[in-house]
Amino acid sequence: MRWLVALVAIFSAACGDNEGRWLERSRVTVNGTDQTNEECRTGLCVHDENTDLIKWGGHIYLVHRTAESQVLGPNSSLRISRTDDEGTTWTLLAIIPAPTDRDLRDPHFYLDDAGQLNIKAITRLPHTSARDSDVDSISVRTFSSDDGRTWSDLAPIGPPTWSFWRIRGDTHGNLYSAAYEDGDKSVKLFSSEDGVTWTAGAMIYDVAEDTPLETELIFDGDHLTALVRMDGLDNELYGSQGRLRTKVCTSDYPFASFTCAKELTGVRLDGPVAFEWDHRTFVVARKHFLEVANRKRTALYELVDDGIVEHGELPSTGDTAYAGVAALGDDGRFLVSYYSSDIKIDGPWARALLGPTDIRQATIDLRDLPADPTPIN
Q: Quick one: how far is CA 166 from the chain centroid?
């Protein structure tokens, strides 16, 4: 019966019982699970996922992927929206369709050297395989020369078989992205001076049996930390059994080599987004429950000297996470975007991959968090 108690507990959390004071509100932004919407009436409830946010030109922009499911396919597109009132209302600005023969996913905003708004994304062949082997990943960019209503054609920015994650800038004006290799065999650092032309650099992590992939970069002056998601062995890929681990790799400018001496155990940061406030570093990522029917959540974490702290969950179930974050001023309030299956139906992640999902948003306030939290590992 212990598993049943655990399942009831996490379901209660999904319904909001664990909402701390840091969570001001959470609601659906784009409804893909509503059985009365147009897509559902025509037999296609949509799978909305892979979000990002950026504050640019006095506005907050949202991008997300929409498709029939999380499965690779040319039925996907990116949708760009904007809010001028901290997420109370959104205006859909543009839809970027996938190429006719490839999938389109994992969009992230960044600014190039001209200050133009860019989106990095990944196109892949619609091929189902373990660890995304043989999908011919190509990282691409599109940019907007106006206010986000028109976008350039998708153009490659990296070599085939390498998937860029989030693009970050350092204090020297350079841009960087960690990219993972098809087959999830290794993670390498790429850099650019203009956001258009990219150069491969140092290997961050290349232990293939750990299945390294999405890697978030965190800059602290001339010090760089890379959080490497590790899916592990075959029996660990779903995150419901075995080990949950995130490798912590570090380097100093000019980032010619990395040291990976530290590992976060008990937590695997899927689709992470890191952000800072008051000299503290936070991460929103997918949370896994070991041996509890393959359930997932989106959670707020904090990196501390001794490891990582979990502050709590955002309302989420099923297929979830891949968040974006934008500051609402400088007082510790942030807007968070993420996606989730219908929170009233706490289905297993493996099944939820094929079902409809919503884009959700949350307003969080970090000022009430404990100043010296206790690490979970």
A: 8
33: alpha, beta or left? (left if phi > 0; alpha if psi -120 to 50): alpha
CA dihedral 122→125→128→133, nearest 10 degrees, is: -70
8-state DSSP, 357: B
Locate 77 and state its tokens: 């597109």
Report d(CA 126, CA 198) in Å as an integer: 26
Q: Could you give the percent of the chain with pLDDT greater than 70?
A: 92
β-bridge pairing 175-181 and 117-124:
unpaired
Using CA atoms, how far residue 256 sits from 202, 222, 224, 259, in Å, is: 5, 12, 11, 11
Q: Please determine, for residue 181, whether its predicted confidence score (pLDDT) is greater than 80.
A: yes
Distances (CA, A) of 236 to 176, 232, 248: 30, 6, 19
Phi, psi of 289 (to 5 degrees): -110, 115
Q: How far, in whole angstroms, is CA 72 from its chain's centroid?
A: 17
Q: What is the pLDDT of residue 377?
A: 66
Question: Rounded distance, CA 344 to CA 195, Å?
Answer: 42
- Comparing CA positions, the residue from 259, 224, 261, 228 lying closest to residue 245 is 228
Read off the amino acid at residue 327: A
pLDDT(5) > 50: no
In this structure, the number of other CB atoms found within 10 A of the CB of residue 95 comes to 11
**Spatial separation of the C-alpha atoms in residues 360 and 167, rounded to whole Å:** 23
**pLDDT, average across residues 119-135:** 93
- Helix (H) and strand (E) counts in the chain: 3, 24
